[in-house]
Each structure stands twice: as C-alpha cells, then as structure tokens.
Task: structure prediction
Amino acid sequence: MLVHGTKSEAETLKTEVGELLARKLKMTLSVEKTRITHIDDGFVFLGFHIQRRPFGDGRRVVLTIPSKAALASVMHKIKKLTGRSTTPLSLEEVLWTVDPVLKGWAAYFRYGASKRTFSYLGWYAWWRLLLWIRRKHPSLTWKQLRRRYYGADRITEGGVGLYNPAKMRVQRYTFRGAQISTPYNIDEMDPDGARFRRTNHDDVAFVGQVSEYLA
Result:
C-alpha cells in the first residue's frame, strides 16, 4: 500500500495491518515481501517497478514500468523456445509457441510506461528467431533467408508471423477514486455510481458487511 506520511506513520500502519491479519484471518505478513521504502527509491509490485522520478520540466512523476526481473524472465522463455533443442521443429511451429508468450506478456504490462521495454523485447525476439533460422539452414545466404522467411516487415512462415510487442497499445491506468467501495470511504461512496466495481452484491450491504468484519 502507499502511505502519504512519515516513515514512522508507515511503520505504525504496517504493525496495525499485521495485527489485523493475524487476528481476523490467521495470516502473517511476509518479512521478505513486506518492507517500507520511499517512492523515490522505488519498489516492485506484481512485476511492475514503481518509482517517482524527475521529469524534463522540473516536475516529479511516478512511473510504472516492467521490472528488470520480469523482462529477464520473459527473455529467458524466448531463449528457451528458440534454443538448439527446437531446431528440428519448423519455423511455423516455433512461432506458434513464441507468439503467445510475447502477446500475453505485452497484454499484462500494457497498463504501464512500457513502450520502450516492448520495443526492446521485440528486437530481442527478432534476433533470437533470426539466429534460430541460421542454425536451421546454415547453407542459405542472407538474401535467400530474407526472401523465404521475411515478409511484411516481420519473420513469417505458413501465414504465421512473429508478433511485435511494440504494436501493443499502452493504456495508462485511470484513477477511479471513490468509485471503488472500501470500508474507509462509506460516507463518500455513491452506491449508484459504483459502475467500475462489477459485483452481484448490493453495494450498501456489501460495504456494511466488510466494515463490520474489520471493526
């Protein structure tokens, strides 16, 4: 969670949350995964690296970008799917395994400032496939490889082309404020306006139940 306050206040809140989880849900906070850090130093959450940085005009903005660990993980998957053990396969078969990985990863990280990372991942995948083709057909010249496997600005075979993550549209997260019901905004919450929270529960009753449970 993000706290607008001092480090001491954040530590107090952490203690209160830990006590609440232990008392109500019999759960404990993970020491490795639960730490207090300043937003300027950044932190990783669900694969995203979140950090406040200075902008060109002097402003400080919070950026949410794919973490280095998340990028390294997907690159490792691409490397494995295009390794020497896959050389007996056809290029079309390899593309069928690589494309879902690229599409799924880009779809997950499209809600951050990910354009530059997407471009780099697309470049990496392109070169991995190119090296795979060279191992598959060592006797072909670059001109022959380009004529056979490179069309419409991408590596392709059998109607299947290498997906370029850079083409994924980045969608920035929209702040929804009081439209999300929590036990802490009952007075400000308008049940008729909770259009963003899809639930079969009645909003007023549901918020009341959660409030009583946490009280």
Observations:
- Residues 67-166 form one domain.
